[in-house]
Amino acid sequence: MQQERWKLFLKALWGAVIVLLVISLLAGVIGGSEFWNTMFAGSFFVIIQLAVLTLLFIIVVRLKEWIEGQVAGMADRKDTVVGADLQMLRQSLERIETKMDRIEKVLSEIPE
Question: Is the distance from CB of 74 to CB of 66 less than 8 angstroms?
Fold first, then answer.
């Protein structure tokens, strides 16, 4: 959902720029060659800025996704380590319980 939202945003932004370019070209045709040069220069400036903005936006989103993946991977590794430690503790507790059972059995055989 998050990824689709930023893609939709970029498509809408580029669509709006294309519509403005078409309008400026039509205004340039109607206004004459002097007005045409001004509109073309302004449109070129807007397109360059939008291209830089789009690249920065894509880089930031990809970096965010990479960081989230790294954090998820570290959390999975931490869960695995905690699970292994818990398993070792359970095995140690079982060994202690068996030793306690043997000690109780030996003590119960000794008369008072």
Answer: no
Residue-wise DSSP of 14-33:
HHHHHHHHHHHHHHHHHH-H
pLDDT tens, residue by residue, 29-62:
776 666 667 777 777 787 888 888 888 888 988 8
Measured distance CA(38)–CA(40) in Å, rounded: 5
Structural domain boundaries in the chain: 2-109
pLDDT digits (tens, 9 = 90+) for 48-57: 888 888 888 8
Longest CA pairwise span in the chain (Å) = 119
Residue 59: C-alpha distances to residues 13, 53, 54, 64, 101 (Å): 17, 10, 9, 9, 63
Pinpoint the alpha helices (H) of the chain.
2-31, 33-109
Distance from C-alpha of 28 to C-alpha of 77, rounded to nearest angstrom: 61
